[in-house]
Amino acid sequence: MFVVLLLGDLELDCHPFPHCIIKNFLSSQTFVENLQRELLELNFNEKSNDLYKFKQSDDLKKKKEPHIAAIRAALFGRFRSWLGDVLGVKLEPTVDISCAKYEYTDVLLCHDDELEGRRVAFILYLVPPWQSSDGGSLDLYSTDSHFQPESIVKSLVPCWNTLVLFEVSPVSFHQVSEVLSQDKCRLSLSGWFHGPSLERPPRFKEPSILKHPHLPRDETVLLEWVNPLYLDISYQEQIQTEFEDNSEIQLKDFLKEEKFREVSEALRQTGIQWMKRDPPNKRCYESASVDSLPECVSVCWELLRSEAFFLLLSNFTGLRLHYLCPADEEDEERETKDDKEEGEVAGTSTESPSSSSSSSSSSKAGTESGGKKLSSPVCCGEVRRWSHGGYTLLHDAEAAQAEYALDLILPFGCAEWEAEFGGFTCYVANEEDEELLTVYPEDNSLALVYRDKETLKFVKHVNHKSSLDDSSTSREFYDFSFVYYE
After folding, report:
1. Read out DSSP for 258-323?
2. Are both 103 and 246 inside the same structural domain?
3. 366 found inside a domain
4. What is the percent of the chain with per-residue pLDDT over 90, rounded to a whole number?
5. Are 97 and 72 in contact (CB under 8 A)?
6. b/e per residue, 326-353, with b = 16+ CB within 10 A?
7. Cα–Cα distance, 458 to 49 (Å, whole number)
8. I need a surface site. Which of 1, 248, 257, 386 has the fewest CB within 10 A?
């Protein structure tokens, strides 16, 4: 049972983590209106990455506008002292405060606010009359036994002159939901009171993704599915030259048109079981259960896992994804450095009568003529559905487990998809904000991107602009997403 304490304009609640709501926080309406005016006159900078999109002011620590200076002094003076006494914690005089503007499609996705020194977060809302249908709510998440966010259990709708406080902790997962109003501005002052951090339990480590060797399928599957242009050896050499120069390439009209149309139509069938992929501090999208895929989609899945396709990728990229592709000096240097394969590798498939020939191939792949043991190329993949609210986020565990890898994305059903909807894949350097590459979804365009251990990727939040103009229904698209390892 959870107890909520209500005292006039003050509400205290410990579920899902300790937070406090104080309505009519500032007694003078004139002061609040002048504060709002000064804040709106500030210079705001566009902020956008995997986690958020909104506008933020410069640091308010030294701003001299009278009402900004007054609220800063009040919050980090007497109010900080009172709050420290209530919590029984010595809060530091560190001033950490800024102003944020959230407008249509702006969002701040699920996170816990934990950075060294942050003890209590605060938000003071300076918004026009606001309803839940406008979006922009402060959503609080429950957590599971591993301290991972689970589901939204409370949503706080912004309200004029209302202060929200919450304790920063390993379970203080929250988000600012996407602003859906096209004519309102969600203006707020926010920051943190600093003090001794709460003890954090060991971070939960997700199970390693299962990786699979190729399926025993010969070149017949390529002849049935792939645009003949890409099976021409001389054209493959041109592709490899471009790929080796840029580490990425997009191959348009990759599948035969009739095969592409067949898979596109099949992906819209109601019989596919779509499973939500979470937790929300790392990802939010739907992935198909392979067992529920229609036959043509399943065959396309097998195409991307086939031995013939591994060899085709080797020809496109020069990477050693098949024993027939020779190793170069760079491969050998990297293998010496990274001789221990991360993750698990599934057992060799025995589902086909041709598995004996595959076993022979695997044996050849396992040893070079010089007798040196090589790792067998493997892959992992999924069929994904993207719609309003979908995204993936960068996270520490991903950076720690990063490997050299070849990413493949093959989209379906995005003929009317626009860049402003989101849903594109961004590549960034680890611990850097600059985007190295953006891959936009394009029908039947096979994207190949080679990344090293310092390159990470995320899918940008699919925003409300993806909704159809005449209804609340969201546009959606699908893709096959595979990762191949030498």
Report:
1. HHHHHHHHHHT-TTS-EEEE--TTTEEEEEE-GGG--HHHHHHHHHHHBHHHHHHHHHHH----ST
2. no
3. no
4. 79
5. yes
6. ebeeebeeebeeeeeeeeeeeeeeeeee
7. 9
8. 1
Burial readout 179-217 (b: 16 or more C-beta within 10 A, e: otherwise): bbbeebbbbbbbbbbbbeeeeeeeeeeeeeeebbbbbbb
| In a domain? residue 189 | yes
CATH number of the CATH domain containing 40 = 2.60.120.620
Rounded Cα distance between 408 and 446, Å, is 7
What total number of domains does the chain contain? 2
Express each pLDDT in 416-426 by its tens digit.
999 999 999 99
Within-domain flag for 371: no
Q: Is 71 exposed, middle or buried (0-12, 13-18, 19+ CB in 10 A)?
A: buried
The band of 8, judged by pLDDT with boundaries at 50, 70 and 90, is confident
Same-domain check for residues 253 and 117: no
8 Å CB contact between 55 and 44: yes
Six token digits for residue 160 = 């004029």
List of residues 6+ apart from 270 with CB closer than 8 A: none
Whole domain around residue 480: which residue ranges? 212-323+376-485
Q: What is the Cβ-side half-sphere exposure of residue 15, based on CA atoms within 13 angstroms?
A: 9
The encoded tokens of residue 271 equal 């019989």
Tokens linked to 318? 């020069």
Give the integer Cα–Cα distance in Å for 254 and 225.
9
**pTM for the complete prediction?**
0.89
Q: What is the pLDDT of residue 3?
A: 54
- Judging by beta carbons within 10 Å of its beta carbon (0-12, 13-18, 19+), is residue 308 exposed, middle or buried? buried
The CA dihedral of 26, 129, 110, 74, to the nearest 10 degrees, is -10
**Are 307 and 431 members of one domain?**
yes
Predicted local confidence at residue 323, as pLDDT: 84
Which one, of 393, 389, 394, lies nearest residue 421 by Cα?
389
pLDDT tens for residues 284-329? 999 999 999 999 999 999 999 999 999 999 999 999 999 887 666 5
Strand pairing category for 186-194 and 97-102: antiparallel
Are residues 180 and 239 both part of a single domain?
Answer: no
User: Which element (helix H / strand E) includes 67?
Assistant: helix 66-74
Q: 243 and 165 share a domain?
A: no
